[in-house]
UniProtKB/TrEMBL annotation:
Residues 1-16 form the signal peptide. Belongs to the adenylate kinase family. This is Adenylate kinase. It comes from Cyclostephanos tholiformis. CDD domains: ADK (cd01428). The keyword Kinase applies.
Length: 301
């Protein structure tokens, strides 16, 4: 009964979110998500052994308690929030990692995951772009790498992420790492300081689909919302006028970004093989979301 209720909540939460999204995207463009090649029959969740994962969660929770990460009161507060379906009974927030190639849909899915589980969303791409805009030392060191589509050096990003994960909001609400770790050195840096995750979600999307997604992506600088000029454009003229394109979202630069991704991805996936969930990212966003949330719920409950 608990799992039926949980699934019903999941479906209603995903459909409520996308009903909201459809308010800004005309029906014709919503339907155009269907233009993206899909492999529904191969939609898969692999590598997740629920009982094994529960044991891991239990041992991580003990680790977390021993270090003061989360208390019974935190869990009570979380369970009272409608945004934290699926974490009832846990003594600390979920610790999640989402990975995938450039434009595989990580940011799009993070909006939904954050809304449902109440976790702190940590996008290293967003953090670095903010540092570049603010002209900080980190931003100055990162700028040329980002502009050319290369990964910034590990020593620039590792310290920032470790510090952020150590902050009280992450300890209490849990976290969702988006775009980190991206190299073996980054994964090892987390492991060295005892930071582990409950679930590693990998969005699988072929390169040819990714190029089209990158080139058409636009972001609203006011709300941070991600659009696509073909698949999900805004229907509000004001929003349309203020949309921005990232400087690394060109066909030329995405080739460099994909090269960097392929050079590192297997090492990163290998670091999380025991908690990995692979999801077909070519499905419609709401279908991708349903698969992801089922997997997270299976680990957390
Ligand atoms: P980052 O910002 O992390 O970029 P990325 O990994 O290349 O990922 P993207 O933000 O491009 O894509 P996404 O997967 O979030 O897709 P989205 O949801 O937007 O990093 C930028 C740079 O920072 C790096 O190149 C590097 O230089 C540096 N950096 C960051 N982290 C680093 C690290 N750890 N180490 C070193 N350097 C680091 O979707 C894309 C588009 O597709 C959107 O238009 C969306 O509307 C559309 N879309 C999404 N889902 C679907 C769907 N299911 N069907 C159809 N369209 C969809």
């Amino acid at each position: 009964m608990k799992s039926i209720l949980s699934l019903a909540l999941l479906i209603s939460s995903a459909s409520a979110f996308f009903t909201q999204r459809s308010a800004v995207a005309p029906p014709s463009t919503q339907a155009s998500h269907g233009d993206v090649p899909r492999h529904r029959s191969s939609a898969s969740i692999v590598g997740l052994d629920a009982s094994k994962s529960k044991r891991k969660v239990a041992s991580r929770t003990r680790w977390s308690e021993a270090r003061g990460y989360g208390t019974t009161d935190d869990a009570t507060a979380l369970s009272e929030s409608a945004a934290t379906v699926g974490v009832v009974g846990r003594k600390s927030g979920p610790r999640l990692i989402i990975a995938g190639a450039p434009a595989s849909g990580k940011g799009t899915q993070c909006e939904l995951i954050r809304a449902r589980y109440g976790v702190v969303h940590l996008s290293t791409g967003d953090m670095l772009r903010a540092a570049v805009s603010a002209g900080t030392d980190v931003g100055r060191r990162a700028k040329d790498y980002m502009d050319s589509g290369r990964l910034v050096p590990d020593d620039v990003i590792i310290g920032i992420v470790k510090e952020r994960l150590d902050s009280p909001d992450c300890a209490e609400a849990g976290w969702l790492l988006d775009g980190f770790p991206r190299t073996l050195a980054q994964a090892e840096a987390l492991a060295e300081v005892g930071i582990s995750a409950d679930c590693f979600i990998f969005l699988n999307v072929p390169d040819e689909v990714l190029v089209e997604r990158v080139v058409g992506r636009r972001t609203d600088p006011v709300t941070g919302k991600i659009y696509h000029m073909t698949f999900s454009p805004p229907d509000d003229e004001e929003i349309l006028k203020r949309l921005e394109q990232r400087s690394d979202d060109t066909e030329e630069k995405v080739k460099v970004r994909l090269g960097q991704f392929h050079a590192n991805v297997e090492a990163v996936r290998g670091s999380y093989a025991d908690i990995a969930v692979e999801v077909d990212g070519t499905m419609r966003p709401e279908e991708v979301s349903t698969m992801i949330m089922k997997s997270i719920d299976a680990v957390l409950t």
